[in-house]
Amino acid sequence: MTKDLYEASSRVTFQDTDITGEMTPVAALLLAQEHAGYHMDSYGMGNLDLKAHGLTWIIARMRMEITKLPSYEDEVVIKTWPGRVHKILYPRYATIEDKNGQEYVRINIVWSIFDYKKRMISFVDGHSLGFPDTKDVPDFMPMPAKLSKEEEQGMSFVDYIPRYRDYDYNGHINNVTYINWVYDALGINFIKEHRLKSLQVDYFEEIVKVEKVSLGLKIKDNKVYAMVKADGKLSTLLELEFTSR
C-alpha cells in the first residue's frame, strides 16, 4: 500500500443490502467513492474544491473483484489510497475488509478531471491543484484493460427511460446507475441463484437528459456483457462475472 492511506470503519445498513441479505455491489462502490471523496477533501481536491475551477472528478473506468460480500449489520473497514497517475488517468484503490483484516472486495476506480463548461475531460495537471506525488506507489491492481465492443454481437436490446433518481450532481447519469439497470434486467431469480465474482465498467460518453436509452445484454458462460447507448452513441460497457450460489 502507501503511507498516504485513508481508513474508516462502517457498518452494512439495511439500505446497503438486497434480497440476498448481502451488501450490493453498488453499495460497495459507493462506499469506496464516498471515502475517496473524503480523502481528496484533505488535499483540497474534493469536488467542491475543483468546482471553483470549473472542474469535477468523473470516473473513466472501474473494476471490482470480490471474495465475498459482507452481510447486513457486518462491521467493515474501508481503506483507500491514490495510485500512480497515468497522464489524465488517476487510479484510486480501495479495499473493504472485516474488522480482522480479511478482505471482502478490492476496487480500482480510475478517475479523470472533467471540465464542466466544455463537457469534456480536462488536461489540467492535477498536481498543480494539490494532487499528491504518487509516482512511487506500487500498483495494487493493474490498470483495467479496455472492454471489447465486439461483445455487442448477439446482445438483446431494450429501451429504458432514465428516471429522476438516475441523475447526479454532475447533471448526468450516475456511474453506478448502469449497474442497477443491468441487475434490473437480470431479474431477482438470477441474482438469488448467482454470486458476483467481478465487475468492470468502462465509460465512453456521459448521458445528459435524454428521453430514453438502449440497454443491450448478453449472457455467455459465466459472464454477463452489457452495453448502454444514448442517441445511437455508445455510452457504457459492462462485464460482470458470476458463480453459482
What does this molecule look like?
- This protein is α+β, with helices and mostly antiparallel strands and 245 residues long.
- The chain has 2 domains: 6-129, Hotdog Thioesterase (Thiol Ester Dehydrase, Chain A, Roll); 149-244, Thiol Ester Dehydrase, Chain A (Roll), CATH 3.10.129.
- The chain contains 4 helices and 11 strands; from the N terminus they run βααββββββααββββ.
- The protein has helices at 25-43, 47-51, 177-186, 188-193; strands at 6-11, 55-66, 75-82, 90-98, 103-115, 120-121, 156-160, 194-203, 213-220, 223-230, 233-244.
- Strands 1, 2, 3, 4, 5, 6, 7, 8, 9, 10 and 11 form an 11-stranded antiparallel sheet that branches.
- A hairpin with a 4-residue loop joins β4 and β5.
- The longest helix has 19 residues, at 25-43.
Estimated structural class: alpha+beta
* Total domain count: 2
Question: Helix tally?
Answer: 4
Note the gap between the termini: 32 Å
CATH topology of the largest domain: Thiol Ester Dehydrase, Chain A
CATH architecture assignment name of the largest domain: Roll
Shape: globular
Structural Rg: 18 Å
The string of secondary-structure elements, in order, is: EHHEEEEEEHHEEEE
How many strand units? 11
How do you describe this structure in short?
The protein is of the alpha+beta class and 245 residues long.
